[in-house]
Amino acid sequence: MTLRMRLSTYRNLGIGNVIRVALYRVGLRSGLHPVQKVKGVPARGPFFHPPANPAPQKAVPRRAWDTEPEYFGRTAQGATFPPDWYANVSVPDARAEAALDWWRISDFDPRSGDIKAVWEASRFDWVIAMAQRAVCGRPAEVARLNDWLSEWTKAVPPYRGANWKCGQEASIRVLHLVLAAQILGQVKDPLPGLVDLIRQHLVRIAPTLGYAIGQQNNHGTSEAAALYVGGSFLAQQGDKKGKHWQKRGERQLAERALALIEPDGTFSQYSVTYHRVMLDTYSFAEAWRRHQNLPQWSEEVRERLGQAADWLHRLTDVQSGDAPNLGANDGARLIPLTDTDYRDFRPCAHLAQTLFRDRVAYEDEGDWDQPLIWLGIARPETLAQQSGSVTLDNGGLHILRMKKVAAYLRYPRFRFRPVQADALHLDLWVDGENVLRDGGTYSYNVSEADAAYFNGTAGHNTIEMDGRDQMPRIGRFLFGDWLKAQDVEPVREEAGAVTASAGYRDRWGASHNRQITLEENRLICIDRIKGFEKSAVLRLRLCPGEWRQEEDTVTDGVRSIRVKYEDGKACPLSLTTGQESRYYLLKTPVPVIKVALERPGTVTTEIRF
Questions:
Q1: Which of 422, 392, 446, 453 is nearest to 326 (CA)?
Q2: Which of 36, 89, 299, 399 is the most exposed place for a label (fewest CB within 10 A)?
Q3: Above 60 in pLDDT, residue 1?
């Protein structure tokens, strides 16, 4: 790793952001950071009283956390009721630190394993589900809700232990607590215990907001939203700091929307699931703003949020609700108001279209309407049209559509840091099924081999040259020498076909250009590669099924895939088994076509369906 590459990467990150992060870390190490002076005693319950209002008409409560615990969108084996707030449910006997000041705890403590598996229960998803069930005829859920919160406040005293380590985790708790108060009709007359608990969280969040902003990701949006929503909640109770926190959060929410969302709607993290986190955060902030009759956002901010809503709507499959597993995926889902699957993005897309475009994403009523119902948002009459083929060049994405088929081609437009080496990854959807798919993330605290596999070039449907990633790694979450797109040809529609292309040249001099053409019954992918020294490998990750190899073709009886050189000679391919992670901390096997490319030149892949 050269000094030039490191300095270039820091410049790309933004000198101001690097300084914010550096000051935060120096402050903690020196013991001089203001957040280290924050003290507190556990808030005392009860936190909620019996519901003050009935459930909205047509409201359906969640079943999650009723009889089974839910972690990362699926049932967690081995978790207890109430949860053990320091246990890592994915690793037997692994526990996080409980007694130390949070800032003394390592980011990657080997004793706890992946810290996200500890944090998950403390995100308070269950608070929302219990509040929903309480207003839907099960008042005993309020007693259980208070019991669990009392257990939490005793086990997790202010600012000690792993559950206070992350400002974003504290922010998610604030948003979920306030949402529960809204569901239970207790925003105007909350119990002192709830007021104290929310104040304690804002005291933790406010001093480290600069660090969150320096991350250039959803940490800044989440923490700003917590200050905005939580601050206005406290201001109503006469809290002197509440108004200050509200105004600070409001300013930063607006600033972050314009800074992190591109004009085409792409979010800074180049990730579908993180896009949902950001969009749900803004959606709840907007719903809260309306509920409290607070000042509107500027037209510029509203338009940027509308573009972000359009982005997710474009990528969400209408039939399944799923979307390409592009970018990092940490299992996060905010304001969970439905029992829809974790990978169903329709509730988020529908709510955001309603709030920021004044139209519905889906004409028929369905589970995606539940957020509107619970948040008291009227359903618009206007229907958003599913967009056709388009190039979203700010974020580097071609979307090609032909009837019930969609293809997505990623290319490198990195104004923000990339966390996956997935340039020219190809995703293919046929009649609601993700036929060619991304490998996902699996976990942030894994072996080097797993990190290299899921985040590296080998985990994507692209070409790996000379056995290395497309960009050199600088750290766990950082690549250097960010790729720059070349020869980008935007989406072009012709009679019976849609075409687009893009390419790049890496720091070692190897280059790759990919052109895709989508027709009604086939996709043609033309790869032009050169500049590699020893080897190049094309991988195509397939949906699970009865795939088999028949000479130079791979087929499942309905779809077929064949790869050949420009001279018509078939490329040597093999059908192997790889791994994918559609849910955080879960790996499952998938068929993978692996093609060893023997020489530079042009390679054509034909996929028939």
A1: 422
A2: 299
A3: no
